[in-house]
Amino acid sequence: MSDEVNEGISELKLPEAPLSVQADNGQVKAVKEQRYPVMEIFGPTLQGEGQMAGYQTMFIRFGGCDYRCKMCDSLHAVLPSEIKKGARWMTAKDIAFELQQKAGHCDVVTFSGGNPCMWDLRELTAILQGNMRIAVETQGTIYQDWLRDCHWVTISPKGPGMGEKFELDKFEAFGRALMATHTRQHVSVKVVLFDQRDIEFAKGIAFLLQDSIPLYLSVGNPYPPNNPNVGIAQYDEDFSLVQTLLGRMKVLWEDVQQEPLLKDAIFLPQIHVLLWGNELGR
Fold first, then answer.
1. Angle at 155 between CA 154 and CA 156, to 5 degrees
2. Residue 257 covered by a domain
3. What angle do CA 76, 38, 72 make, to 5 degrees?
4. For residues 50 and 154, is the Cβ–Cβ distance under 8 A?
């Protein structure tokens, strides 16, 4: 496990795991079950962006992240202080049970965060694999073997507008490992656009990909919920936020469509924000 993951997990002060009984060569012994910081299990809802846009999906939002993006829309799943306050520390079996209780006929689940790849989710993916198709959203910095059992993986490298660094070596290593087990139809890259700097960043990503993986562009939310870096949005209604997002998308599109490197990129709004604004659990 990488130093970033060890440091991030220790920062959260993982609570003592519960005991379960396990047989080992005829001997019965008590073993500790891994628990994970779960911020939210919600749905069915509409996936709002990227390759999965429009899909009906459940969401599991895990706490913990190796990044600290200034424009993050899920800081409650990133900051250790917020995770300690709001996380439920659940075993894989507990997560799967609650998920299936809520899912109804929905058979797609998205692992999100934070960065779900902070955690060893082999047991959870094994439990869910027979009944649900698993999608994962990650910045592509930490590869985990359990990803090979997931149906879709969206890699979302962070451009300048997000206020985080881009680690090219990790991005390339993650992509190579993923493409060894997945086809092009099940992997995508998503870049969030806030301004012209992000368009330049997206052009660089497109050049790296060389059409090997589909590239999606998503208009960034300038007023992410509960984010002290942007202050309090001065809106009385979500309709005003919708108008702001669509207006920004129109301006950004004028620049995107002039870039040959982005001619095959798919540019979408954040559908969930258009429908529900900054409402959590959507």
1. 115
2. yes
3. 30
4. yes
User: From the centroid of its chain, how far is CA 132?
Assistant: 18
281 in any annotated domain: no
Query: Tokens 């090979």 belong to which residue?
Result: 148
Domain total in the chain = 1
Question: What is the extent of the structural domain holding 18?
Answer: 3-276
pLDDT (tens digit, 9 = 90+) per residue, 54-96?
999 999 999 999 999 999 999 999 999 999 999 999 999 999 9
CB 63 within 8 Å of CB 95: no
How many angstroms from the chain centroid is the CA of residue 139?
7
Rounded to whole angstroms, the Cα distance separating 140 from 174 reads 6
Question: Do 58 and 42 touch, CB atoms closer than 8 A?
Answer: yes
As a whole number of angstroms, the distance between CA 161 and CA 138 comes to 17
Query: Is 282 a member of any domain?
Result: no
122 is a domain residue: yes
Question: How do beta strands 108-112 and 133-138 pair?
Answer: parallel
Q: Establish whether the linkage from the previous residue to 114 is cis, with ω within 30° of 0.
A: yes
Report pLDDT for 279. 80
pLDDT band at 49 (very low <50, low <70, confident <90, very high): very high
Residue type, 160: P
Phi-psi region of 209 (alpha: psi -120 to 50; beta: other; left: phi over 0): alpha
The pLDDT tens digits of the residues spanning 144-190 come to 999 999 999 999 999 999 999 899 999 999 999 999 989 888 999 99
Q: What is the DSSP string of 139-181?
A: -SSS--GGGGG-SEEEE----GGGTS---HHHHHHHHHHHHTT
CATH of the domain at 224: 3.20.20.70
Measured CA to CA, the distance from residue 230 to residue 152 in angstroms comes to 32
Query: How far from each other are the two terminal CA atoms of the chain, in whole angstroms?
Result: 32
Identity at 136, one-letter amino acid code: V
